[in-house]
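User: Teach me something about this protein's shape.
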Amino acid sequence: MAAAGGSKQLVEMFYDVVSPYSWLAFEVLCRYRHNWSIELRFRPAFLGGIMKETGNQPPAMVPKRAEYMMKDIKRMAKYYQVPMQIPKDFFGSVIRKGSLSAMRFITAVDMTQPQFLEPVSRELWMRIWSRDEDITQPESILAAAEEAGLPSALAQKLLAMTSTPEVKNRLKETTEAALKYGAFGMPAVVAHVNGEAHLFFGSDRLELLGTIIGEKWLGPVPAASKPRM
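Assistant: First, the predicted structure itself:
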């Protein structure tokens, strides 16, 4: 049910830019922020850490799931109106290289320049999942930051922060917070309703999220919003 007294209900989304389904959920929740009475909080975490702690593995590591995923991403991208493309070297770009450097950079942004959290995250998703570009090298991360509007000097400073204990610990703490809610993959969306935390996994549970918080699902692109891509 909706929060009493018209107050906004907290919805947290734990995500990693290596996850295509996280991008879908991210964009849709950005749109619904203008339609639902929610306080939307994005929580950058490390999918690799969650997989390790839960004994899970990426869908692409299971042959039949990988085959399904390749088709599913195309369908979901069209439905959610997100310009997603499968990287040519999926295993090289996504599985082997990973996202630790990118997620540490996003964490540094969140800690010091939170107003850039959304655009920087979006640009990193765009690089790997729309333009088939690298997100692991410093120059790649800086290019995404520039596209997101971060001044060059500030982006360089944030990049230097990624090797500090403060940033590393924050990313670890956020990942552990997701695990405590029961996350086993991403996106992990947590709705706080009447003192209870409700976990939803994946980008296709947002209609159910709406029922839990007492809001109406209006499709992937509600009338009051438009896709930003």
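Now, about its shape. The longest strand covers residues 9-15. The beta strands are 9-15, 38-44, 188-193, 196-201. If you'd like, I can walk through any region in more detail.
User: That's plenty for now, thanks!
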